[in-house]
């Protein structure tokens, strides 16, 4: 998660510098005084990690709702912070989709034991056709 957050923060910072370089006369550019603003480091880090986790763990509702909030932030108050959040989330989404392609979910690999191994809670997962995260009460 540190790698995801730091890569997203670096991409957002680089994107902010690029927007300042483009200038206000281009659609993606911003004014030069934006370059002197503080970066949104910790919040970009957190929103990027949230996006990564929601994609990797298949939580599309949470991913969609948080993306809509960030897009709404940019639409209502168009500032550097909102744009940096969008860049950070896009970076995290690319990393998450790459991770999902490189490591398919356990349910597509086959055995029920593999489906539960990623949870690190032995005996708490049941093999399911649609979701490897189907939980049951522990047997006594």
Folded structure, characterized:
By secondary structure, the protein is an all-alpha fold. The chain is 62% helix and 0% strand. The chain has 6 helices and no strands. It has helices at 2-22, 41-56, 60-76, 80-102, 106-109, 112-117. It is elongated and about 60 Å long.
Please outline what is shown here.
By secondary structure, the protein is an all-alpha fold. 62% of the residues lie in helices and 0% in strands. It folds into two domains: 102 residues, no CATH class; 35 residues, no CATH class.
Record the SSE blueprint.
Blueprint: H1 2-22, H2 41-56, H3 60-76, H4 80-102, H5 106-109, H6 112-117
Structural class: mainly alpha
The unreliable regions are 110-115, 117-122
Give helix and strand order, one letter per element, not per position.
HHHHHH
Strand content: under 5%
Whole-Å distance between the termini? Answer: 36 Å
Number of continuous helical runs: 6
Whole-number count of domains: 2
Overall 3D form: elongated
- Major beta-sheet overview: none
What's the total number of strands?
A: 0
Helicity level: 55-70%
Please give the radius of gyration in angstroms.
19 Å
> Average pLDDT value?
77
Summarize this structure as a short list of keywords or feature phrases.
single chain, 140 residues, mainly alpha, 2 domains, 0% strand, elongated
């Amino acid at each position: 998660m540190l790698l995801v957050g730091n890569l997203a923060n670096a991409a957002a910072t680089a994107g902010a510098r690029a927007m300042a370089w483009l200038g206000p006369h281009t659609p993606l550019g911003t004014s030069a005084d934006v370059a002197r603003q503080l970066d949104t480091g910790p919040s970009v880090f957190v929103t990027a990690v949230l996006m990564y986790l929601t994609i990797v763990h298949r939580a599309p509702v949470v991913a969609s709702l948080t993306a809509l909030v960030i897009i709404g932030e940019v639409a209502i108050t168009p500032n550097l912070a909102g744009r940096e959040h969008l860049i950070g989330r896009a970076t995290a989404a690319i990393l998450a989709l790459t991770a999902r392609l490189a490591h398919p979910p356990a349910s597509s690999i086959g055995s029920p034991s593999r489906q539960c191994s990623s949870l690190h809670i032995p005996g708490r997962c049941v093999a399911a056709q649609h979701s490897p995260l189907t939980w049951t009460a522990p047997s006594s």
